[in-house]
Design a protein that fits this description.
The protein is α+β, with helices and mostly antiparallel strands. The chain has a domain of about 130 residues: EpsJ-like (Ribonucleotide Reductase Protein R1, domain 1, Orthogonal Bundle), CATH 1.10.40. It is built from ten helices and twelve strands. The strands form five sheets. The chain has a four-stranded antiparallel beta sheet. Strands 2-5 form a two-stranded parallel sheet. Strands 3-4 form a two-stranded antiparallel sheet. It is extended and about 115 Å long.
């Protein structure tokens, strides 16, 4: 073989080797990506199963609690974070962590109760009054406590409240007309014609709110949702240390016990949806439903308690909150039927909040109207479960709405009404 031929053969050999190396590198990279995809999908499946298992653990606790008593308080096992964490520590997760929290959905104002279902044509005056008081307090709180908000005169305040509340009624009622609104509400409310002119446009539902975020789509909500341009750093101290919530709402804000100590009880990082629920439908005949609008005073936050009662009955709402806080400090209330203790520092007596009628001893109970008393309940059947799974730096949160059925004298069971991941 001549020198030229040997040179050509060597070049061809080197070319083939280069091509093979390139192919091998490409195959290696592809295999690596496939391995990463497999690991990612495997971890996603593990996270999903872990997070969902948290909801089932919560249901087991709710069933146990339902079998033990017929009231629901933040002293119950489902609200005992230490006990929940101890149960989670016993789970055989080789890797990853799981955190579960349970909140009482009945501690919130029922948005869908603002219109009387099943007919869905006329507004509920009792619920309308709750919303007026709640929104008014929210305005007073933010303007007095947060310097970034300008003070509103009485006219602007009334206009904002009526616009949002009446627009909710128009969103809920069963038609795009003035059958419910009338002249008084039509000046403030909004039907589909208003929303079609927005960018992007959308329709008024003309029925119950179907998902939590839908409340934010109602005309007038923006007035109450504008966050302060600057927040002062705020530390929340718990058993697991401090958490800085400077940059926005606390992820776990909904349903938390009151952290604010002012006369309104609002948390600066919480928004209106944190105090409101769209759940609570109960059967009302064949293929029909209604919302009773009742609120569990054992778990409701202070702004909700204050909104439930007339201004002249404000002392009763504050007493409920103080007495409940005292019982929750150590969650060691007296046994049922025990003696009532003397008043403590808070001005609230020692009461057993596990008793269904413990609030009857509150100042002003006899002065409450029949409508106000009908709003009160001390047991719950709807709960919101937040289950957070963490694995290799990835986090997945499952949020479940759980309905508990039965009770102390009946077979207790739970079912998931809605499960979402984020």
């Amino acid at each position: 073989m001549t020198g030229n031929n040997r040179g050509i053969a060597m070049i061809l050999t080197l070319s083939v080797i280069s091509v093979l190396l390139i192919l091998a590198l490409a195959l290696s990279q592809r295999a690596g990506r496939m391995a990463e995809t497999v690991i990612w999908n495997r971890d996603s499946a593990i996270l999903s199963n872990m997070a969902e298992s948290g909801a089932h653990i919560a249901m087991a606790l709710l069933i146990e609690d339902g079998m033990e008593g017929d009231t629901d308080t933040r002293c119950d096992i489902w609200a005992d974070e230490t006990r929940v964490e101890a149960i989670l520590q016993t789970l055989p997760f080789q890797k990853g962590e799981l955190a579960v929290r349970i909140f009482d959905e009945s501690a919130r104002i029922q948005a869908n109760a603002l219109v009387n279902f099943p007919k869905g044509r006329s507004p509920s005056q009792v619920q309308m009054n709750i919303w007026k008081r709640f929104l008014s307090s929210q305005i007073d709180y933010r303007e007095s406590s947060l310097d970034s908000f300008e003070k509103s005169d009485d006219f602007k305040k009334k206009d904002a409240i009526l616009t949002f509340a009446h627009s909710m009624i128009d969103w809920l009622d069963s038609g795009d007309d003035d059958a419910v609104s009338g002249t008084a509400i039509s000046a403030y409310g909004a039907e589909s014609e208003f929303y079609r002119d927005l960018d992007p446009p959308y329709e008024c539902r003309n029925g119950p709110f179907a998902f939590d975020e839908e409340l934010t789509k109602v005309r007038g909500y923006d007035f109450f949702s504008v966050p302060p341009p600057e927040r002062n750093p705020r530390k929340i101290t718990g058993e697991k240390g401090e958490k800085d919530t400077t940059n926005g709402p606390d992820e776990n804000a909904f349903g938390d016990p009151d952290e604010a100590e002012d006369e309104w009880g609002f948390d600066e990082n919480a928004h209106i949806p944190d105090y409101v629920t769209i759940r609570g439908a109960t059967p009302a005949g064949r293929s029909k439903f209604k919302y009773d609008g009742k609120i569990n005073i054992n778990t409701a936050r202070l702004p909700v308690l204050l909104a439930m009662f007339l201004p002249e009955n404000r002392e009763f709402a504050q007493w409920i909150h103080s007495a409940r806080e005292k019982a929750e400090e150590n969650c060691q209330t007296r046994p049922p039927g025990g003696e009532t203790g003397e008043e403590g520092v808070s001005g609230a007596p020692d009461v057993d909040i596990r008793e269904r009628d413990w609030h009857h001893s509150g100042p002003g109970w006899e002065s409450l109207s029949a409508a106000e008393k009908k709003l009160i309940k001390t047991s719950s059947d709807l709960f919101r479960v937040e289950s957070v799974a963490t694995l290799r730096g990835r986090t997945l949160t499952a949020e479940a709405i759980v309905k508990r059925e039965g009770g102390k004298k009946k077979k207790t069971s739970c079912k998931i009404l809605n499960l979402s991941f984020k």
